Amino acid sequence: MLKENLRVVEETIKDACKKSNRKREDVTLIAVSKTKPVEMLKEAYDLGVRVFGENKVQELTDKYEALPKDIKWHMIGHLQRNKVKYIIDKVDLIHSVDSIRLAETIEKEAGKRGIIANILIEVNVGREESKFGLLPEELDTFIEKIADYKHIQVKGLMTIAPFVENSELNRAIFRSLRKLSVDIGNKNVDNVNVGVLSMGMTGDYSVAIEEGATMVRVGTGIFGDRDYARV
Ligand SMILES: *Cc1c(COP(=O)(O)O)cnc(C)c1O
């Protein structure tokens, strides 16, 4: 099942790249493995997957210990400040930085270890009450502050689009995130790059790629439905 799912996802990414005149290598597929057992991740690893996304600190660190060290782990879920220390030296990218206080903690923990943490700023483009992320109008102040941090490198923006039946309905959201990233890029702030646009999940990653996504986070499309009752 995994092999066939990966083939379909790969095919879909290629098609979306072709349709929008983009190169396949400009889009990174993040296999979102939350709630899935280590054996399933190992199976994906054996099929060539090297980038995994997790949304819980404990689960990420457990899987990190159990699986090969050439995996790139991405933290994609809401991160509590008191847990930053457990993942700071294990993850390649934190997608979900949504407050200056969290950024401050990341700066401190990265500083202690003498490393530079790569982060994305999560933006609540859809302005959903239930979602984390900065509102677009909060970005300027956030970026001004983060420019002083020596152990943080902003790599771009991330958004979680609303759940919709028709992925076309999220096109405007993806377009807005891209526009925000262009605006920020034009400001040329220290430590702030906007090359990465993390947007698009199983239901809408084609549209996200057409609108400029450089990272898509696909869970269900690769690993199948999640059974939260069993975790
Ligand atoms: C779970 C999750 C995904 C993957 O969702 P699917 O619809 O299963 O592809 C992507 N991004 C985030 C932040 C998630 O929490």
Explain this structure.
- This protein is an alpha/beta fold.
- The chain is built from nine helices and eight strands.
- It has an eight-stranded parallel β-sheet with strand order 7-6-5-4-3-2-1-8.
- Helix 4 links the parallel strand 3 and strand 4.
- The chain is globular.
- The two termini are 21 Å apart.
- The mean pLDDT is 96.
Average pLDDT for all residues? 96
Radius of gyration over all CA atoms, rounded:
17 Å
Low-confidence runs of at least 5 consecutive residues: none
Task: Give me the secondary-structure category.
Answer: alpha/beta
What does the overall shape look like?
A: globular
Q: If strands are numbered along the chain, what order do they take across the biggest sheet?
A: 7-6-5-4-3-2-1-8
Order of helices and strands: HEHEHEHEHEHEHEHEH
Q: In short, what is this structure?
A:
The chain is an alpha/beta fold. The chain contains nine helices and eight strands. 38% of the residues lie in helices and 18% in strands.
